[in-house]
Design a protein that fits this description.
The chain is of the alpha/beta class and about 425 residues long. Helix content is about 30%, strand content about 15%. The strands form two sheets. It has a ten-stranded parallel beta sheet, covered by helices on one side. A two-stranded parallel ribbon has the order 7-9.
């Protein structure tokens, strides 16, 4: 008697999605994928919905020069036909390569992945520890050709480095090819650790136009982009391909100032959520120009709903005897009618609040109850908070009056919730 196909294999994908929405986690999907082929196909969209690779800094990665800079294709051609699979853990810290190999084997899996969180590696790392691993786990000739055609879609100036990195097993090139295959992404988070965004294959995969369609944005569905530089020396050149879909942008721990921020915001006309840290070197006499910052924010005035700004000042008074300060003033944010969440440094408004309070009345400061913050803040605000001034704020009177006026603002606007600064307890660099 022939085997009868189980009824559950005929369930539509929508019903599977409803079933999996009730408390299923990644471990459950992995278990179900090993039951049979039908379950494996059913859980694939959930199992491949996101990908995270942010390795622990204490665990080393393979160095691509360990194969003496040789082409890895001859190793792959000499592998045994009936070879044994390598034990679990042999590919530790090489999940991007495993994912790429899986996608090349089953291209449909690339369409399932919507969110990625990646560490952009430097060009020193590879994907194989030794020639044995390169022979047993390398790509096939057909897979090499697919990767080559993927690279050829990039501008011709990048072909030489990318092809050389592919054939020599460079991890950064593998990461770039992986991103090029994932065209259905909606959220991308990129971290850098002791590597620059200039010349990074991960960044090139993100911002480089396609060779045959130079004005076509590679990720038309992306809504969230986060770039976190884990080292203060890294630099993002502030170039994005124009898109009408990007809704959230996070720029942390890089060398970003108001002028570089302008180049970002000019490419994101529909941005709703901005989280940015501005960095200045006091030793080089770099100061924040509030006029330029306000002009940058005006580019997204009609769409911005959430704004979080930080200011980081490098070097101290031993390098520059002139205290760090801002230039000009921010002025009113009344035009940001959709802004509902605002978290900014007090330094941006401390002088304006003090002068407004001083000019409003001849009464002593302790007896004033005028809401001066409302002169500058949007009317529809729901969450508001300011970070205390750092050591570079020297005028205690200005800060004290700004804090007192903020208490008055919350008393007179009970519908606005106060945002309290959360201390940073550590870096979640390990995933």
């Amino acid at each position: 008697m022939a085997d009868i196909q189980p009824a559950y294999t005929k369930l539509p994908n929508e019903l599977w999605d409803l079933i999996f929405s009730y408390g299923f986690v990644r471990k459950d999907f992995l278990v179900l994928s090993t039951v049979n082929r039908a379950f494996n196909r059913a859980v694939e969209p959930s199992l491949y919905s996101s990908f995270t690779w942010i390795p622990n800094p204490s665990v080393g990665l393979p160095v691509w020069s360990s194969l003496n800079n040789h082409d890895i294709r001859p190793y792959t051609r000499s592998r045994r036909r009936n070879r044994m699979e390598l034990p679990d853990g042999y590919f530790t810290q090489q999940n991007p390569y495993l994912l790429l190999r899986s996608i090349l084997k089953s291209p449909r899996r690339a369409g399932y992945i919507k969110k990625v969180r990646l560490l952009a590696p430097s060009s020193d790392f590879g994907i194989f520890w030794d020639s044995y691993q390169a022979r047993e786990c390398g790509l096939s000739t057909a897979q090499f050709e697919i990767c080559k055609r993927t690279i050829e879609a990039l501008p011709s100036s990048l072909h030489s480095y990318w092809l050389d990195g592919l054939y020599k097993g460079k991890l950064d090139v593998i990461m770039g090819i992986l991103l090029l295959r994932l065209t259905g992404l909606t959220s991308i988070e990129i971290r850098l650790r002791d590597a620059s965004t200039i010349g990074s294959t991960v960044i090139d995969a993100l911002v480089s136009p396609m060779a045959n369609r130079p004005h076509h944005y590679r990720y038309p569905h992306i809504k969230s982009l986060s770039v976190t530089c884990c080292s203060p020396g890294t630099f993002w050149h502030g170039k994005l391909s124009p898109t009408t879909n990007l809704r959230k942008l996070v720029l942390r721990n890089g060398l970003i100032n108001e002028h570089i921020l302008t180049t970002f915001l000019s490419s994101t006309p529909h941005l709703e959520d901005l989280n940015c840290e501005l960095v200045y070197d006091n030793g080089a006499q770099q100061y924040l120009n509030c006029n330029a910052l306000k002009s940058a924010l005006l580019l997204i005035q009609s769409t911005l709903k959430r704004l979080v700004l930080d200011i980081q000042v490098l070097s101290g008074h031993e390098w520059n005897p002139i205290p760090w300060d801002i230039q000009h003033s921010m002025g009113s944010l009344k035009g940001f009618q959709k802004l509902r969440y605002l978290d900014i440094p007090m330094k941006l408004y401390v002088k304006e609040i003090y002068h407004a309070s001083e000019a409003a009345s001849l009464m002593p400061f302790a007896e004033r109850e005028v809401d001066y913050w409302s002169l500058f803040l949007p009317d529809g605000l729901e969450f508001f908070g300011v970070r205390p001034n750092s050591p570079w704020a020297l005028d205690y009177r200005h800060e004290t009056e700004a804090v007192r006026c903020m208490d008055v603002y919350f008393r007179m606007n009970p519908g606005v919730k106060r945002i309290f600064p959360v201390p940073v307890t550590g870096d979640d660099d390990e995933e």
